[in-house]
Structure formats: structure tokens, C-alpha cells
Amino acid sequence: MDSFEINKIIASILLTALIIIGIGKLADILFYNEKPKVSAYKVEGLENNISLSETSSESKKIVEVINIKDLLAMGDLAHGEKVFKKCSACHMIAADGKNKIGPNLWGVIGRTAGSITDYKYSKAMKAYAKEWSFEEMNSYLIKPQAYIKGTKMAFAGLRKEKDRASVILYMNSKSTSPKALP
User: Fold this and answer.
1) Is the pTM value of this prediction over 0.90?
2) Among 29, 61, 117, 130, which is least packed, fewest CB within 10 Å?
3) 10 Å Cβ neighbour count for 110?
4) What is the C-alpha to C-alpha distance for residues 124 and 113, in angstroms, rounded to an integer?
């Protein structure tokens, strides 16, 4: 095969590629579609660009409005077990359970934050060091990263009050000595 034949083969491949690209560009011009400004599908759990300070103040306002006694009255243990399956990807809740990506949550209500010795907490969680009461857990579960800035828990949070109340009741029941409900 001589060089003239090779040049013809390469030229035909390039011409074919250019024609395909040209047809694609021409089709884009002829059949132009304007993209919608608002997404057609809303994904639950994602938020628009809201700063953490706004979210934190928002979650604190929500906590002030909601009475923990009324919130826990909305909860249901069976529903809490179902919702906790989201948490079980990172947390175990068993008396002799091991830490996973997150710490074991057995007896978490009434325990001091960042107190399990064989788990490496973030500096923010160690510094927080408050007792996990019903109110604290409710505030934290709304949006963990906004409530304790610097926590390594990458969870969007539980927005629905019934879900939070049910999970809190479920976690409280998973203890050797569950705390009395308010």
C-alpha cells in the first residue's frame, strides 16, 4: 500500500467525523430547546444554597416553637425502627454492638456527646460534650452539621417531626435503662 492510499483512508475518516459533528451541530440549531429555569424533579433532602448560619438559626427557631413533650407524642416505636434504617448504614444500636462509620448508639439518650472511648470523634463533637437529652437529640437530628459545626456526620437530617420523634423514641428504647419520657 502506498502513501497515497493511506492519505485517502485518513482523509475519508476525518471527513466522516466532520460530517457527523456538523450534522449534530446543525440539529442543535434547528431543534433548539430552552432549558427550564426550575428543576422539574425536586429531590427531597437537598436544599438550595442556604448558608449554615441561616439554617442553624432556622433550626433553633423550630426547636423553640416545638414542645418536646408534644413532639414525642407524635412518635411511634415501629415507625422509629423503620426510619432508623437510614441511620443503620453508619450506626449500630446493639448492647454489644461495634462502632461502624459512626459510633454505636446503644444508650445514646442520656450519654455525654463524644464519650465512647474506642471511637474517634471529630473535634467539634468532643468539644460539644453535652448530654444527649430529648431536646438536644431533636435539635441535632434536624440538621447535624448546622447544629454542631464541624461534626463529621454527613447526614442531611430528618425534617419531618414524626420521623425525628419516632427515631428519638426508638433510640431511647435501645438502652439498659431508658430515660423517662417528659
Assistant:
1) no
2) 117
3) 14
4) 10
What's the CATH number for 52-173? 1.10.760.10
Instruction: Write out the three cell numbers for 34.
Output: 430552552
The whole-number pLDDT of residue 51 equals 43
What sign results for the dihedral spanned by CA atoms 137, 122, 128, 59?
negative
Q: Grid coordinates standing for 106?
A: 446503644
**Residue 3 host element (H or E):** helix 3-30
d(CA 171, CA 150): 23
Find where cell 502506498 sits. Answer: 2
pLDDT on residue 59: 47
Residue 140 burial by Cβ neighbours in a 10 Å radius (0-12, 13-18, 19+): buried
Whether the per-residue pLDDT at 74 is higher than 90: the answer is no
Q: Which of 62-66, 93-97, 109-113 has the lowest mean pLDDT?
A: 62-66
